[in-house]
Every structure is written in structure tokens, then in C-alpha cells.
Amino acid sequence: MNTSQPLSAEQRLEQATDWWSTSIIDIRPGVINTRGIPIQDLIGKISFPQMIWLMLRGDLPGAEQARLLEATLVAAVDHGPQAPSIAIARMSVTCGLPLNGAMASAINVLDDVHGGAGEQCLMLYQSIAQLLPEGPGPHPEALLDRAVDQGLEAFVAEHGKIIPGFGHRFHPIDPRVAPLLALVNEAAEQGHVAGTYARISRAVERGIQRRTGKALPMNIDGVTAAVYGELGFAPALARGIFILSRSVGILSHAWEQSQQGHRIKGPMPTSIPYRYTGPKADAGDAAAVE
After folding, report:
1. How close are the terminal C-alpha atoms of the chain, in Å?
2. DSSP secondary structure letters along 95-108
3. What's the predicted TM-score (pTM) here?
4. Has residue 280 been placed in a domain?
5. What are the C-alpha distances in Å from 56 to residues 184, 235, 268?
6. Is 78 a domain residue?
7. Strands 31-34 and 37-38
8. Is the dihedral of CA 184, 200, 107, 60 positive or negative?
9. What is the count of structural domains for the chain?
10. Mean pLDDT across the stretch 14-29?
11. Exposure check for the chain: N or C terminus, fewer CB within 10 A?
């Protein structure tokens, strides 16, 4: 039996007010303050990447930090209709879904396998960084390589032989890596970032070749993980920011498909057969069924 006293109207109002709490935004009639800054003081004065940073981190980034974040957003926008998320967006539209439904369907597949490599790679980089001695870098290459070997050994033991962020099923050399690393190196030389994660990413590339005897060049997930590490983002946000970026490509493809007017498109033309691997029909069995 509940013997507690009933709440007063004031207590109920306070309880309802406390149900959700946020430090992100303060909205009242005529007022929209984002992280304590009036929206009218942000509109036309900061970029969208700066707004993303403000929302996620609670402050405004420096110009060079915003430049790096913007570069990663640009780099990961799209990878064509063969990317499952993009293909799903386009197929969804031909099945009658509006843009929001197509985008939701596509974003839902950006999980561990298709969309999680950046997060997983940043976790690997962080585990290697924790093996390095504290203090100012850069660390000697031999010391860094030893930490990488230990980090890779532990990662493979826990997660299997696939190292996220390295190798690409389509690009022998991912064209997005070099320009992003160049921007990080430039920012490190100017003292805007430490450069630790960029050095770790290149050391992991060397470490994989030592382990396997094969070159697996860094891909978009490996290099953006390095950028997010330099900028101090948590691994989970590496995936979230990637999804923000890829959502632009998803929207673009969904809109283009909606203008083309096709209906019920599958993953490949019906003129191309799939491979059936079940038992073959027996003429005698067919006659018996009849």
C-alpha cells in the first residue's frame, strides 16, 4: 500500500519541469539561446561546422579547428550508389517513401559494419595513445611502433583480424586521405593540434604491414578518426559526425532518384539473374505433386 502523501500542484509542476534537463538550449517565448548564446548572435556569424561543434562540445571552436572539422564533413559526404546506405535511399524512393523515410532507412544501416569504422578506429588510436608515455611529443618512431604493435595485438585478439580504417574494397589509394592528413600536419605545425593521432595513424599503417606483410593504406575512416582524435571528439561522436556528413549524400541521391520517376527498383536489374543454390527440382516429384 502506498502511504506517500499526494504531491501538491507546485510539486507536480516542478517534477514535470525536471523530467528533461539540458544544457544545450534554452527556449522560451521569443528566446532561443544555444549554449547560452542567443540564436540571433549566431545566425550569419558562424558556419554550420562551428554550430555542430557548439552543440556537441559547448563552446565555439577556433578557426583552424573548425576548418579541420569542415574538411572531414566534406570528405565523407558520398561514395556513390554502390554504397549500401545510398542504394537503400534510392530504392526506398522508388518504393514510394518520401525523402525523410528514405533518409531514415539509409541512416539505419550505418551501424558497426557499414558506418562504424571511424568510431572503432578512433578507439584503436586511443588505446595506442594510452601506451605512450605522458609528456610532450613527438615520441621516437621506435617507441611509437612498439606501442602500435601492442595496440594492434590487443585489438585483433578482442575484435578479430579486420583493422577498421585501413584498406578499401574500391580504392587502392583513397584520394581523401592525403589532403586531410596535409591539413592536420599544417595545423600541428602551427600549434593548433598536437599531431599525435596523425602520427599514430601513419604508425598503424606501418604496423599492419609488419604484421601481415601486406600494405593496407589508410582509408577515409582511418584519416577522419585521426582528425577527430586531434580535435578531442569521443569515438561515438566520430560515427555521429560521419552520419551527419553522409546524410548529405543520402539526401542528394534520394532527391535525384525522386526526379527520375522509376518505380520499385531492386538492387540490380531484373535482366541479371541471382544465383539459386537450393535443391534442384525433380521431374518425378513435380508429377507427384500434380
Report:
1. 68
2. TT--HHHHHHHHHT
3. 0.91
4. no
5. 21, 13, 39
6. no
7. antiparallel
8. negative
9. 2
10. 94
11. N
DSSP lists the bridge partners of residue 26 as: 33
In the predicted model, is pLDDT for residue 148 greater than 80? Answer: yes
Establish if 79 belongs to a structural domain: no
Instruction: Give CA–CA dist 154/150, Å, rounded.
Output: 6
Considering only CA atoms, give the Rg of the chain. Answer: 25
Query: Which DSSP string do the residues of 228-244 spell out, in sequence order?
Result: HHHHT--HHHHHHHHHH
Where is 27: in which H helix or E strand?
A: strand 25-28
Query: Could you tell me if 37 and 143 lie in one domain?
Result: no
Read off the pLDDT of each residue in 248-260 and give the average, rounded to a whole number.
97
Q: 256 and 219 in one domain?
A: yes
Range of the domain at 246: 84-260
Alpha carbons 66 and 52: distance in angstroms, whole number: 10
Cβ-based neighbour number of residue 2 at 10 Å = 5
d(CA 123, CA 131): 13
53 with 100, same domain: the answer is no
24 phi/psi in degrees, rounded to 5: -85, -50
CA dist 225 and 238 (Å) reads 7
Residue 135 clears pLDDT 80, i.e. is over it: no
H runs (alpha helix) in the chain: 9-18, 48-57, 63-75, 84-94, 99-107, 117-129, 141-159, 177-189, 196-212, 220-231, 235-260, 283-289
CATH number of the domain at 114, please: 1.10.230.10
* Domain annotation covers residue 158: yes
With CA atoms as reference, report the closest residue to 177 among 227, 122, 223, 120.
223
Please give the Cα distance from 204 to 142 (Å, whole number). Answer: 13
